[in-house]
């Protein structure tokens, strides 16, 4: 750099906390997950309820990467069987993801309550999962964490649709994927063996889901 020139570092434009709280009322903590905290958010202008996922940057590089990854993926997708992104914010200390609120509970809890699925009900769930998965795979997106807990009923209606959630482990299949991740019971053999893998690992997970249902 020539003498006398001043190097100016580009400063990132962060949201302030008031940017979030002026638009949404963030409720109490519902539960804490591996990478984030889950709360209900009420949009002040409309009174609509959404889900709010808060990722704390101080929790480390993996958490920051998970938040950025989920935001990036969710901004790209739009499908009736995928929980849709509503808003995102980044402050100096947190990432916030605002999504649709699915109120029907997850498929895992439904099994715990009801005991079993009929063949008709199971096929209806699997059909919707496969439709969402076909959409993702056409975009070369690997979900990498399909499981019963990530399949949500959109509402409490008996004919409610099923939606996929939690994309913080998702990846584009644009090169070799070898890092193992996901839930052990749903992992494909190539993931366990730390071999190169891609979209077929999601199909294996759907097979596990079908077997459980």
From TrEMBL:
Annotated Gene Ontology MF terms?
ATP binding; protein kinase activity
Specify the domain of life of the species encoding this protein: Eukaryota
List the Gene3D superfamilies hit by this protein, alphabetically: Phosphorylase Kinase, domain 1 (3.30.200.20), Transferase(Phosphotransferase) domain 1 (1.10.510.10)
Which Pfam families does its entry note? Pkinase
Protein kinase domain location is 24-213
Q: Which PANTHER family match?
A: SERINE/THREONINE-PROTEIN KINASE
Name of this protein: CaM kinase-like vesicle-associated protein
Organism of origin: Thamnophis sirtalis
Taxonomic lineage per UniProt? Eukaryota, Metazoa, Chordata, Craniata, Vertebrata
Q: Which gene encodes it?
A: LOC106543118
């Amino acid at each position: 750099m020539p003498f006398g020139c001043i190097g100016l570092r580009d400063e990132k434009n962060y949201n302030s906390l008031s940017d979030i709280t002026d638009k949404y009322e963030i409720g109490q903590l519902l539960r804490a997950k591996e990478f984030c905290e889950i709360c209900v958010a009420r949009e002040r202008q409309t009174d609509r309820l959404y889900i709010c996922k808060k990722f704390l940057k101080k929790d480390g590089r993996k958490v920051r990467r998970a938040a950025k990854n989920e935001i990036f993926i969710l901004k790209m997708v739009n499908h009736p069987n995928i929980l849709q992104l509503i808003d995102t914010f980044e402050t100096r200390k947190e990432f916030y993801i605002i999504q649709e609120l699915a109120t029907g509970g997850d498929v895992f809890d439904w099994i715990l309550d009801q005991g079993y699925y009929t063949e008709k009900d199971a096929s209806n769930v699997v059909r919707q999962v496969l439709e969402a998965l076909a959409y993702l795979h056409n975009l070369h997106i690997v979900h990498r964490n399909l499981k019963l807990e990530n399949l949500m009923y959109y509402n409490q209606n008996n004919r409610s649709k099923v939606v996929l959630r939690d994309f913080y482990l998702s990846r584009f299949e644009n090169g070799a994927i070898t890092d193992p991740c996901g839930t052990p019971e749903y992992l494909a053999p190539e993931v366990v063996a730390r071999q190169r893998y891609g979209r077929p690992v999601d199909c294996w997970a759907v097979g596990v889901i079908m077997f459980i249902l």
